[in-house]
Amino acid sequence: MPDTFVLGIDQSTQGTKGLLFDQKGSLVARCDLMHKQIVNEKGWIEHDPVEIYQNVLAVVKAVVEKAGIDKTSLAAIGISNQRETVMAWQKSNGQPIYNAIVWQCARAEKICQRILTEGYSEKIKAVTGLPLSPYFSAAKMSWLLENIVGARQKAETNELCFGTMDSWLIYCLTRGAAFKTDYSNASRTQLFNIKDLTWDLDLCRIFGIPRCTLPEVCDSNALYGTTTFDGWLAVPIPIHAVLGDSQAALFAQNCNNPGMVKATYGTGSSVMMNLGEHIFSSEMGLVTSIAWRFNGQISYALEGNINYTGAVITWLKDDLQLLTNSEESQKMAENSNNADQSYFVPAFSGLGAPYWNSEATGLFTGITRVTGKNEIVRAALDSIAYQITDIVQLMQKESTIEIKELCVDGGPTKNTYLMQFQTDILRIPVQVPTTVELSGMGSAIAAGVAMKIYKQQDIFREQKRLKYVAIMQASRSESLYDGWKKAVNRTLFRA
């Protein structure tokens, strides 16, 4: 039997990854391309969708070349993507009418405030499982309709497509033949009824979004169409799985049973618990989303979202120029002065769960004469672990399910200082898989299983993990975490 490969495309906030997996589900090769982060003087954050699509084509070609395989051996594609980021394009020619508005961008805050004063926030939470927030896609769509010339007219005359990044890539890869999304991504738009499993017409009316502008919602392992990557392949291959990046990581972590929890350390972070087929409504700042729908079977997830985790390391490197590369942060944190008591709260564009305060701004506190370059870097790294701990502790308290371990993934999990500190503060074991980029892996596995290339149980049986256990004294861990909560309170008070 000739070699067969499955391609995972992970389109994330910072860049696009092409991941190639063999018939055993092992990672053969990976290629990355970063895209520009467009940030203006107001702090609005955008991406160029055309640049992103061109990067997708480039990483696919590059990863096949790097692996040294024949491109005819590609059998299927799975896509994972940054969630909530949204854009609009013309149905007639596929041209975007504006840049993609990134999930971190809070420009639609006034729209949310208006909807709040109209009395719809409770209804929105009940229908979607999400609190009214500019974090999600719907208010961003409203902003586009209200601020881009001609957008409203195009939407009303069925000439406009609104889509998250998965829909855009599917549309481009299939050359306009498919305008689709999956249940996991639809559930993050704040327009999708997670009980009735359909676009909610009342919510479309509240946000002013014509239903005709929204994509068809499909099972996460459905056939989304076929592609030749703009003619690069002689014979088209199927796009057979689509998942939001956090849900894809949950699947790749084998968190397929209710109560299992994972944390993805990306630009931001998602802490997610599998709920199975039962909906749980949080009253403490967590959200309920759809994990996936495979073969008609729905699974829900309880989730806490953090705006800035891995992006904090990027900020240290690119903006403060304290690092020449991300890997330096580990050594600098390890060499920091233990007497330093500084904290950093990375509220660059507000705070996500469990605080949901879009007005909060960042804060360094506890700075003394012993605070230097190493200590600033360490405080920034520590902020990642503290924020994850906030969510895990709240999740355990509200669900009443004891969380016995945390499965983690994403680039920052290679930082052994961060992982040990995470375990010490959280006080439960942390499991790090040898393959850290699990979002792309999750969508590739789902596509491979759908194509009967993989058997799901065999893939997960082969996973290898590194286990961290707490070594810090509990009294010191509790003292450090108490200092973090005081720092957050100062941030919220200033907001």
Describe the 3D structure.
With 495 residues, the chain is of the alpha+beta class. It has a domain at 5-244: 2-Layer Sandwich (Nucleotidyltransferase, domain 5). It has 16 helices and 24 strands. The strands form seven sheets. It has a seven-stranded mixed β-sheet, sandwiched between helices. Strands 3-2-1-6-15-14 form a six-stranded mixed β-sheet, with helices on both faces. Strands 4-5-8 form a three-stranded antiparallel β-sheet. Helix 9 crosses helix 14. It is globular. The N and C termini lie far apart (62 Å). The relative contact order is 0.13.
Question: Could you list some keywords that capture this structure?
Answer:
Nucleotidyltransferase, domain 5, six-stranded mixed β-sheet, seven-stranded mixed β-sheet, single chain, 16 helices, globular, alpha+beta, 495 residues
